[in-house]
Structures are given as structure tokens and as C-alpha cells.
Design brief:
By secondary structure, the chain is of the alpha/beta class. The protein has 6 helices and 14 strands. It has 2 domains: 123 residues, Rossmann fold (3-Layer(aba) Sandwich); 76 residues, Jelly Rolls (Sandwich), CATH 2.60.120.320. 21% of the residues lie in helices and 29% in strands. It starts with 5 loop residues before the first strand and ends in a 20-residue tail after the last helix.
């Protein structure tokens, strides 16, 4: 069990070392103003003019020149190799919501690993910025101020059902399954509201919705899934 390193009453931005721009980081920080760098994402955070409250990770990709700019008490090396740096960082921050930028693009396995983290921490309000889209683990219910024609995609990572309003193709009565039935490239007819019967659905929407989505998920009464049991992490062979 890793103890929280950064506590905040406002949303936190995690900056990773994947594909992202300075402008995207700066946009994220207008919504989630506390910055935490994740390993190699420290260089991008500093380039965006951020003052990271911590840098977290196994430190295998952080640039030495960037790390030297961080006070020693803000450097948090976590050496275990059974989880990604994104997972480590999300476990180590405590905030109403988290915006994660720099964890998508580039290698496909890294993107899949980022989606895994969203599911593994189903009790956390965490929104990935991914180019012109956002991605999040759909909570029990969510309302988004989508406009007619906005693309809203649903990709199940487990068997899951739910209900919707505001979608051109409603999901009521559909049984989603990653092997048999998915819901990508749906379209909004106006404001979209979703009610999910269980965890396991990745929701993707236009990046322009990130601020209202973060605000919606940040309120204390926002519904979230219960936390999963802490996974057993085996030690690598010596």
C-alpha cells in the first residue's frame, strides 16, 4: 500500500512522458491547477511553466537536468515494477479529480496500460486527455453538455449494460462485451446522460468537454464505483 504524497482540495494534473504538447498541459492546468509530474513527464511539465509539487515514478526515463531542478523532498522514487508510473502516481495523489495528460499517443501498449489504470482505480475520477478526445471510466451516472453531432464512443472493458438519453443510438437493452459488442462512433443529439449498471465502460468524448466533466465529477456527491480490493503484487524473482 503506497501512502498519498500530494493532497489537494482541487483537481490535480498528472503530466506523463507520452505524446502531449505544452499547450495541452497548460490547458489541463487551467482546470486542475496542482501539477504532479510522472517520471519523464517532468521535462514537459517544466516546459509548460508548471511548478510540480512532486515527481513520482521509478525514474527510469526522467531527464537528469530536469530532475536537478526539483527539490529533493519533491522527488519520490517508487521502484516496484508491477505497475506503471501512471498507476504509481494516481495511487499517490489525493484530490477530487485528476486530469492526466501525456499518457496517450505513441506506443499502443502504453495507451492500453493507461486504460487499464482507469479500470483498476474505478473509484477515482480520472480523465485522460488524448488529442481531440477525453477518456474516462464511466461512473454510475454522468451528464455531459454535448452538442448535436458530437462523437461519443463507448468501449467496454468488461460485460456491462446501461441506459442513455441524448444519443443517436441509445444503449438501453444492449449487452456490451469487449469480444462481441462495442459502442464506438455514436453521436450526440444534444446533452448526453448515461447510467451504467456496473463498472467496466470506457467513455470517450470531445476534449472540449473536459472542464464541465471535471467539474461534474469533482463535486462531493458525485457517484463513483467502490474501490477494488488492493491487488496482491508479487515480488520479482531474485
Amino acid at each position: 500500500m503506497i501512502k498519498s504524497i500530494v493532497h489537494s482540495t482541487v483537481p490535480i494534473t498528472l503530466v506523463g512522458g507520452g505524446q502531449a504538447t505544452v499547450r495541452e498541459v497548460q490547458k489541463a492546468l487551467t482546470i486542475a491547477p496542482i501539477c504532479v509530474a510522472v517520471d519523464g513527464g517532468l521535462s514537459l511539465a517544466l516546459a509548460a511553466g508548471a511548478d510540480p509539487q512532486a515527481v513520482i515514478g521509478d525514474m527510469d526515463s526522467v531527464e537528469y537536468a530536469a530532475l536537478a531542478q526539483m527539490p529533493r523532498e519533491r522527488r519520490h522514487r517508487i521502484t516496484e515494477q508491477q505497475s506503471t508510473d501512471f498507476d504509481k502516481a494516481l495511487r499517490c495523489v489525493d484530490a477530487p479529480a485528476v486530469v492526466a495528460v501525456g499518457f496517450c499517443g505513441g506506443r499502443l501498449d502504453h495507451q492500453l496500460a493507461a486504460l487499464h489504470v482507469l479500470l483498476a482505480h474505478q473509484d477515482r475520477a480520472c480523465i485522460l486527455m488524448a488529442g481531440d478526445q477525453i477518456a474516462l471510466h464511466a461512473p454510475p451516472d454522468i451528464s455531459m453538455p454535448t452538442q448535436s453531432g458530437d462523437v461519443v464512443s463507448l468501449f467496454p472493458m468488461a460485460q456491462v449494460t446501461g441506459r442513455s438519453t441524448g444519443l443517436e443510438w441509445p444503449i438501453d437493452g444492449l449487452e456490451f462485451d469487449p469480444a462481441t459488442f462495442i459502442g464506438t462512433s455514436n453521436r450526440a443529439t444534444g446533452r448526453v446522460q448515461l447510467w451504467m449498471d456496473g463498472p467496466g465502460m470506457i467513455l470517450m468524448a470531445p476534449v472540449g468537454l473536459i472542464q464541465p466533466v471535471v467539474e461534474t465529477l469533482s463535486v462531493p456527491q458525485a457517484a463513483q464505483w467502490p474501490a477494488r480490493a488492493e491487488p496482491r503484487r508479487s515480488q520479482p524473482p531474485s
